Amino acid sequence: MRAGPTRGTAHLADGTAIAYAVTGRGPAVVYVPGWVSHLELGWAVPAERRFYEGLATGRTLVRYDRPGCGLSGPTDRTDVAELELEVLAAVAEAVGTEHFDLVGASFGAPLAVRWAARHPTSVGRLVLYGGWVHGDGVASPAVRQHVLGLVDSHWGLASDVLTDIFAPEADAGFRAVFARYQRDSAPAAMAHQLLAACYAIDVSEDLARITARTTVVHRQDDRAVPLAEGQRLAAGIPGSTLTVLPGRTHLPFAGDTHALLRAIRAGLGLPALEQEVAPPPLTPRQTEVARLVARGWSNRQIAEELVITERSAESHVERIRARLGFRSRSQVAAWYAASNPTP
């Protein structure tokens, strides 16, 4: 498997730390995430990692966690869309690029539209997946109020409900892992704020100002965002093209990700990838150690369970991390949970 990303930290004018990760080689493409993200745990989920590796083949992929999410610092600001523009500027400066392609998925799509409209000379190609023009097109007022209230009152249940909406075709194991992933990416208050921003954003006046070569991609029966919103994006952006793929799944790294990657890469001017090759498996002993790491066990507990020395347990964990390209035990735990629904 590809080596893990190189991580860095950018800073906003107010000092807020923005974690970012760089993977691959070639011209830069910046990925604007959906509503919540976690650089470390996202790389540990096999399906999400394969999606990012697909974007990074032939490009230098730059990802980041927005303030209040994942590895980035907290913020008291509530102007989410305006803050995102500052985040993008800080990350681009930190990685040393003034010109890049831009891929926005879900909430990242209207945010990418806003950036491309205000900074037209910085963006070469723009790819928008699962996006919308105005939050009113995503859900009715009653549904929006209900979901936001559920996030406030019971973030655990809300993460399950949202996972069912985002990935209705995924198996139970993936849904369980992604629900936990959302909760680990942001606390309830930040999740509510970002989801409210998803519903509130309106980029209708930005569309005509975009000059980048634009590709809009949407799944036919996307359960979270109607196809009509993707069609509105494509109709409003001069010279854009619309690619409609089958499926109900909203998450870019769930469902038929190979077809989606092919469409996104075409929008970036890249050739299609060959079918993915499965990563080298762990040994039976490494798999057993990973199972115990997923349970939260220490090296000493693992050693006692497997009747080995503590040093041997530590060595097993280090080899697992090296083999999978991970930095931490939490990534090993997330990887095992995603690959084995019942640890």
UniProtKB/TrEMBL annotation:
Residue intervals of the HTH luxR-type domain: 275-340
State the InterPro entries in the record.
AB_hydrolase, AB_hydrolase_1, AB_hydrolase_fold, Sig_transdc_resp-reg_C-effctor, Tscrpt_reg_LuxR_C, WH-like_DNA-bd_sf
Q: Which UniProt keywords apply?
A: Hydrolase
What are the recorded GO MF terms, alphabetically?
hydrolase activity
Q: Does the keyword Hydrolase apply?
A: yes
The transmembrane segments are: none
What is a single Pfam family found in this protein's UniProt entry? GerE
**Tree of life domain:** Bacteria
PROSITE patterns to which the protein is assigned, alphabetical: HTH_LUXR_2
What the entry lists under PANTHER family is as follows: BIFUNCTIONAL LIPASE_ADENYLATE CYCLASE LIPJ, HYDROLASE, ALPHA/BETA FOLD FAMILY PROTEIN
Protein's name according to its UniProt entry: Alpha/beta fold hydrolase
